Amino acid sequence: MSRYREVYARWKSNPEGFWADAARDIDWIKPASRVFAPDEGVYGRWFSGATCNTAWNCLDRHVVAGHGDRTALIYDSPVTGTKARYSYAELLARVEAIAAVLKDEGVKKGDRVIVYMPMIPESVMAMLACARIGAIHSVVFGGFASRELATRIEDAKPTAVIAASCGIEPNRIIAYKPLLDEAIGFSAHKPDKVLVFQRPQVTAALQPGRDVDLGAAADAAAGRHVPCEEVAATDPAYILYTSGTTGQPKGVFRDTGGHMVALRWSMSAIYDIKPGEVFWAASDVGWVVGHSYIVYAPLLIGATTVVYEGKPVGTPDAGAFWRMVEEYRIAALFTAPTAFRAIKKEDPNGTFLAKYDRSSLRTLFLAGERADPDTVKWAEEKLGVPVVDHWWQTETGWAIAGNPVGLGLLPIKHGSPTVPMPGYDVQVLDDAGHPVPNGKLGNIVVKLPLPPSCLPTLWNADDRFRKAYLEEFPGYYKTADAGMMDDDGYLFIMSRTDDIINVAGHRLSTGAMEEVLASHPDVAECAVIGVVDALKGQAPCGFVVLKAGVTKEAAAIEKELVTLVRDKIGPVAAFKTAVVVDRLPKTRSGKILRGTMRQIADGEDFRMPATIDDPSILDEIRTAVTGRVVG
Hints:
Strand 18, helix 12 (337-346) and strand 19 form a beta-alpha-beta unit. 55% of the residues are buried. Helices cover 32% and strands 24% of the residues. Among the domains are: 88-229, Rossmann fold; 504-625, ANL, C-terminal domain (GMP Synthetase, Chain A, domain 3). With 631 residues, it is α/β, with parallel strands linked by helices.
């Protein structure tokens, strides 16, 4: 039996007591004078008056407790053929060396440091080194376009930038330093120092006086002890930029103390991970998942984390994830649904699965976008373990809704990320702010205050924070997701509110249509968008990618898909257009760029998304919709 209902009720009856209990798992330099201070910040602050240090809690305390020999980090890079393991003691020593270099180069407590790195151990070390000295890191994807990087430099105003000389994709090497130099040229703010980790594949040219060879400097600093800086629990741990609707990125930042408390609690309660077990979040440190569940949460609990420089398919094949599970005895895998759709597309019968020992794997967690029931069922059938969808955002830093495995698994309902986690009073409201009945589509909101680890505001932008998240539904945080709740309290996240389309006065969820398309046996993945329609206002259009080996004519499949949606949802959906494409435009984390697709279909001008994985796909989408969609 799950203890979820009891634990959630305990939180709801005494939120401050609940989080005070959770905070006992963190080492504090000075305890909080108030667990929650409603009169501080925009809507209140957690652990007011407390001081602490994240690096101490992630590294030093495990070494002091006698666990220095335990493996902290595994690095596996199929694109370079490199593997490495670091114990807690070894990781601590390397973090201290980088921290020493940062201090030598003038970085102080409260300064910002941009980290522009690929998926290598030094990325994790750089983030923890910043935390150690009280600097605020802001990770930007290695290889991010110069203009976009420049906007983040301009907003964060970093004292220093830590970069690698290059990143490595399956079919190309991307030199980072020219992109970084160009970005600094674009930015009005100029960092004092650029610290470059030279990778063997590319040696970056260094500018005398400003640039530092980080690897050589850290080697020279090896053995130096750098004490952990005492920071306030309410001081920012990091800034993570997420795309804004105005084109100006939003700087989400995280309180240091609350961040540790919520993540530490989640590792045991949600993910059921114990010290010494191997937890793999197959993401990137450029995303919030990488911050929370590659770098911080596993180390806070004393587990082993994995840094993987590769892809779910193509490095070398669709068995890449299963090779990792076998080799490192991974207990839980956390990835995006798009990764599994890619695996399913290449290996629909699970042939590669049979080649590897997966007996260590207890649970698969999915997040980052809606997990369609067809993909979840495929993964359940092939893996034979619980497949747990959970829902959260860059802004929250951990799950708003999930199935807390550590409290006892609740019954899984396909299409639902299950139930709200302690800390989140989730409600569904109509556009006027009134509660809607169970089973009815509405705006998903969270009653204030948000729990620890959620953003207290945006970096230097309180008014923008209020306007973007708090203004539309007073007293609530607007998630900008639409969905419903059933009679059992299970949430169903159907789409972003921007993706609710209005067809002849009917509010319809594109997510529900995608669910139907994904159930077709030949479909690997899909996206439904609403396009301008002169008669109905908007009309749905579905884009589908077929599984490998499908020989049926595309036109025949398109007709079947139109019929399928009409049969399952009804004529009210007015679904008349399905288009088979080779691939869908996505961000680097695998989120489908539905908004951009809608602009292309409607013939609008659009701004190239900063996080797009391959811009050439947009031309393919434009070609596919020409003559097919009325825009």
